[in-house]
UniProtKB/TrEMBL annotation:
Keywords: Lyase, Pyridoxal phosphate. PANTHER family: CYSTEINE DESULFURASE (PTHR43586), CYSTEINE DESULFURASE 1, CHLOROPLASTIC (PTHR43586:SF8). Residues 45-418 form the Aminotransferase class V domain. It catalyses: (sulfur carrier)-H + L-cysteine = (sulfur carrier)-SH + L-alanine. SUPFAM superfamilies: PLP-dependent transferases. This is Selenocysteine lyase/cysteine desulfurase. Its cofactor is pyridoxal 5'-phosphate. GO terms for molecular function: lyase activity. Belongs to the class-V pyridoxal-phosphate-dependent aminotransferase family. Csd subfamily. Transmembrane segments: none annotated.
Length: 478
């Protein structure tokens, strides 16, 4: 590992940040990652915005719940009743964590994408009988873009140079629609950008939308795991987020919000559990969450997510934010101090930003930077266009960028390693040789073993001795 003194722009404050411990323990924090030089180092997971590792508390809860697991909602057996209770209690815990109002519905779905597709299917038609109108920004993740493009009359507003100007443009568009009788049913907006982490002022958005009778959907995928959020306090009408980004990777996601549209909408899935009665000539559907949760529910996913919500709620909100702010500042400051590194920004006046920092390195393709960070430093980041093609194109990053992201399980030392590794790339170049195979950057003659059955064996067809060794049998550090 590079010594602190060698990392770009390392000040006394940076040295303190480098010592920061994770706020909460996560599973796999010390998992060894093999390097091309034969060493192995603790894996630095700086890709938590894509999928976050499980909190230890979540893993423990799942382990404790497994012996209690049985069928839900239908079984008369003791464990069926216990499991039903666990599922419904988890629903309440999750709803409370995001400040659901008494009459809100909390639906357990698969992920944010699922939640947004579900809501799109419940969007009321406009007065002319055509699909309802929805206003979105071009900064959205595709999950908060494509459902509206497909199921609604979507208007895409180009984000402006500042957060204030973006909110003003949204306000103008909402008012203009209402003035000509084409009011928007919904403003669907991200809680935090999955590209820059930046946050728009939710209170202003809600005020502008509600002033003309438009509801607000917040895509909370990147916000909820990193900031306290309350539907009741903000007035946001609908919130979607994912368990796997909230340190509970057990297949559950959530849609919470106003019941009326959900109860009037076509059931998302047709099947058992969503119906009161079925006749050959017609069906009576439930209302409430059951209406959209046909099939056997994901009890363990819901329990896991509830455990994550409890663990996050137990952390002091300022401590949670302070930890991520410090890591983010060090990432931005350290990366920007390296010649040829550019940090992607949307809004210089953004009042807040979660721990997502996206950058480019002059002279290197994003895929090569990501491959280098993994192969030579054991650091996991994401490269590409982050399911935000319209935004990346508008900002001039059509070829993609590299995204690093942090969370409650991130240590300062991991951020320091990334800054040092990018600095070393710019100063000395990569030590291994890289090439593109089937559109993917790989190490030429990659000697690293890959986990058996990972599907990566084919990619590393040229791997040297040890290339097919099981991951658990790595030689000790040289
Ligand atoms: C802002 C945002 N919205 C939606 C999604 C989609 O989340 P999921 O893949 O869990 O459905 C993501 C995923 O990266 C995201 O970052």
């Amino acid at each position: 590992m590079t010594a602190l003194a060698e990392t770009p722009a390392c000040t006394d404050v940076d040295a303190v940040v480098a010592q920061l411990a994770p706020v909460l323990p996560v599973v796999g924090h010390d998992t060894p990652a093999p390097l091309v030089d034969g060493r192995r180092v603790p894996y630095a997971n700086l890709d938590v915005a894509a999928s976050a590792p499980a909190l230890q508390a979540v893993a423990d809860r799942v382990t404790r719940t497994l012996p209690l697991y049985a069928s839900v909602h239908r079984g008369a057996g003791y464990l069926s009743q216990v499991s039903t209770s666990l599922y419904e209690t988890a629903r309440r815990t999750i709803g409370e964590f995001v400040g659901a109002r008494d009459d809100d519905a909390t639906l357990i779905v698969r992920n944010t994408t699922d939640a947004l597709n579900l809501l799109a299917g419940c969007l009321p038609a406009a007065d002319d009988g055509e699909p309802g109108r929805v206003l979105v920004l071009d900064v959205e993740h595709h999950a908060n873009f494509l459902p509206w493009q497909r199921s609604a009359r979507a208007t895409v507003l180009t984000g402006r140079e500042t957060a204030a100007a973006t909110v003003a443009a949204l306000r103008d568009e909402l008012a203009a629609g209402a003035a000509v009788g084409h009011g928007y049913a919904l403003l669907a907006v991200t809680g935090a950008s999955n590209v820059t982490g930046e946050v728009l002022p939710v209170a202003d958005l809600v005020e502008a939308a509600h002033a003309v009778g438009t509801r607000v959907l917040l895509d909370g995928a990147q916000l909820v795991p990193h900031r306290r959020f309350s539907l009741a306090e903000t007035g946001v009408d609908y919130l979607a987020f994912s368990g796997h980004k909230t340190y509970a990777p057990f297949g559950a996601g959530v849609l919470v919000g106003r019941r009326d549209w959900l109860d009037a909408g076509t059931p998302y899935l047709a099947g058992g559990g969503a119906v009161r009665s079925v006749r050959v000539d017609g069906t009576e559907w439930h209302d409430g969450p059951a209406r959209h949760e046909a099939g056997s529910p994901n009890v363990l996913g819901a329990v896991a997510l509830a455990a994550a919500c409890e663990a996050l709620a137990d952390v002091d909100a300022d401590a949670l934010r302070g930890h991520e702010d410090a890591l983010r500042r060090r990432l931005v400051g350290g990366l920007e101090a390296i010649e040829g590194v550019e940090v992607v920004r949307l809004w210089p006046d953004a009042a807040d930003a979660v721990g997502v920092v996206t950058f480019t390195v002059s002279g290197y393709e994003p895929g090569q930077v990501a491959a280098y960070l993994s192969a030579e430093h054991g650091i996991g980041v994401r490269d590409g266009r982050f399911c935000a093609h319209p935004l990346l194109s508008r900002l001039g990053y059509g070829a993609g960028a590299v995204r690093s992201s942090v969370g409650v399980g991130t240590a300062g030392e991991e951020v320091e390693r990334l800054v040092a590794a990018v600095g070393a790339l710019v100063a000395d170049g990569p030590q291994a040789r890289y090439d593109v195979v089937d559109g993917l950057w790989i190490v030429v003659d990659d000697p690293r073993p890959v986990p058996e059955g990972s599907g990566l064996e084919g990619l590393l067809a040229t791997a040297g001795p040890g290339g097919d060794e099981a991951f658990g049998c790595l030689p000790e550090d040289a």
